[in-house]
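Database export, one record per block. Field names are fixed; values are copied verbatim from the stored entry.
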Amino acid sequence: MKGIKRNIFTVFFALVLALSFTLMPATPAYASAVTATGSGDWNSTTVNAPWPGGVVPAATDTVVIPSPFTVTLQADTTIAGLTVDSGGKLAFGVNNINFTVNGDVSGAGQIQPVGGVIIKLTGDWNFSGTYSNLFLNVYFTGSGDQTIPSTATATWRTMSNALKTSGTIFIGTTPTLTFSTQAQLYNGTGVSYNRAGDQLVLPVAYNNLTLAGSGNKTTTGVSLDGIFSMEGTATASAVPTYGSLAGLQYNTATARTASIEWVTPFAATGGVTIANTGTITLDAA
């Protein structure tokens, strides 16, 4: 009988202990989205300044900075996504920060960088807000396709795909760069300017370059070593400089007349390819 009572007491004690742990307040754990609840330093652990519970977002968290808060980043940081709402601000307190976003950047708020700040982005740039200066460098590093839609603002110091191994960057807007000649867009699968309407093509060297959508694309100063693909109804304003291995491709279902892009003789060994159903009519012998 004593043994039975002892066993009953042991089980009861274990249940009480388990229940006490269950009822203890837990440290906040972010599942996916972390919304700032105040202004302050990104790495501050003070409750609600800026993060709920004083828990700094982890690399697997997406971050939202709503109005009227300002969150200041002062060290290299990695997160899974960023939204800066209208009235919110992401500020950088020191130079030469590497801010890795393994997802999208969006919102209509404000980004305030200082010299040498780099955002390394694996997703899309959907940010339509403003910048307080032009010291932001954006590196596209995703292995898949990445997009800058026509609604986005891309007012940066430089942009680069030097760390991109594959995938195409689809550019629907016209990036405004402080140093336009410092854009590095040679790597990855290629770059496609696909705005519906006239668009500036950054005057740099490309491997594969596509003109898509519609309108006239300003191609002055453009050079390429891979495929120059004409798609949709887009046209080129100037002949690109073809490398020795380059090629010209028409990949459109819309009939068009060849223009300045089809140079003669076409000396580059990539030749000319008609890759879709649109009839291509020569404009000269």
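Remark 1: The chain is about 10% helix and 35% strand.
Remark 2: The first strand starts at residue 33 and ends at 35.
End of record.
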